[in-house]
C-alpha cells in the first residue's frame, strides 16, 4: 500500500462518523481496505475482526487492536426554542466545545449540520462571565425555531449521536495530517497498513486485527474482542495525546515528528516491562524513531486485553495527536508510518519462544 493510497484510507476512516455505540459508518469505511487480507467478520457491538488468510490455527495468536469510535455527543433533550441539549460521549473539556460545526444524525440516518453554541457575552452577567462553562450552558443549533420543527422537519429525536463536522486534510509541505477522530482512526488505519505490508509473508504467529467499539466510554469493545480472539500477545495502536505544546520541554514525551510513543504505564495498565524493552531495543537497533513515556492518566484498550485469560503481554504503539479529544487533531504522517514499521518488525520476529520469554 503506497503513501497515496494510505492517505486516502486514513481520510475515509477519519471522515466517517461514529461516536461510541454508533460505529456502523466507520466499520463500512474500513471494510473495503480490509478486502483480500482474510476473513472479515463483525459482532453485534460492531467490533470488526480481520483474520489473516495466512493463519493456520497452530501458532500463537497476536491481536492487533485499535478502537473505531470517536468522542462526540448525544442529544439529551429538545428545547422549546429548537436548540438541542447534549451530553458528552467520551471525555471533553467543556470550553473546547462551543463555536464549532457539528453533525446531528436524524431518524432517517441523515446527518444534519449544526453549531455548538453558548450564551453570547452580550447577554451574560458579570458572574456568568467569570464562571466555568458547564454542559448545561452548551447547546446545538440546527437552525430550527421550535421543538416541533426539530422533530417534524429535521427528524431529530433524543438519543441521536452528534459528531464534529470536520474533513481530513494533508499537507505535503509539512507532512502533517489534520482531521477529527485521529484517536483512534489512525490506529484502525495502522492495523490495515500493517496487515497489507505483511500479506503473503511467512510468519511464526497468527494475526487477528480488531477494530474495537466503545473504547471512549470504558474499553467495552476490547473487553469482548479479547475474549473472542484469546490472544497470546497483543499490539494496541492508539492515537495518543501529544504533549509538546503543553508541558515544559524537559517533560515532553509525546511530540509530533519524533516517532511513535510507547508508554510504560497509564492509569489502567503497567506495560509488560520485558515486552516493552524488547520493542524499544528493536526500534533502536533498526533506527526506527520512537519515544517512551510515563503516563499517570489516560488508558487504552490494553487495559482490557492484558487482563484476558492467563494474562496477555501488551504494548501500546501510539501515534502522537496534538489536541486529541477536540474537534481537530494534528498528526505527522511519518509518525504513523514508523508505528506501522515497528509493528511489522516485531511481528516478523515473534514466535512461541519469544512470546513466552515476556
Briefly characterize the structure.
With 358 residues, the protein is an alpha+beta fold. The protein has helices at 3-15, 24-34, 126-130, 147-152, 182-198, 220-229, 273-286, 302-305, 333-349, 352-357, and strands at residues 38-42, 48-52, 61-67, 72-78, 84-89, 101-105, 111-117, 139-141, 161-164, 169-171, 176-179, 206-212, 233-241, 261-265, 291-294, 314-321, 329-332.
Structure explained in plain terms:
- There is one protein chain.
- By secondary structure, this protein is α+β, with helices and mostly antiparallel strands.
- The chain has 2 domains: 3-70 and 180-357, Aminopeptidase (3-Layer(aba) Sandwich); 72-164, Peptidase M42, domain 2 (Elongation Factor Tu (Ef-tu), domain 3).
- Helix content is 29%, strand content 26%.
- The protein has 10 helices and 17 strands.
- Strands 1-2-12-3-13-16-14-15 form an 8-stranded mixed sheet, with helices on both faces.
- Helix 5 packs across helix 9.
- The longest helix is centred in the middle third of the chain and has 17 residues, at 182-198.
- It starts with a helix and ends with a helix.
- The relative contact order is 0.18.
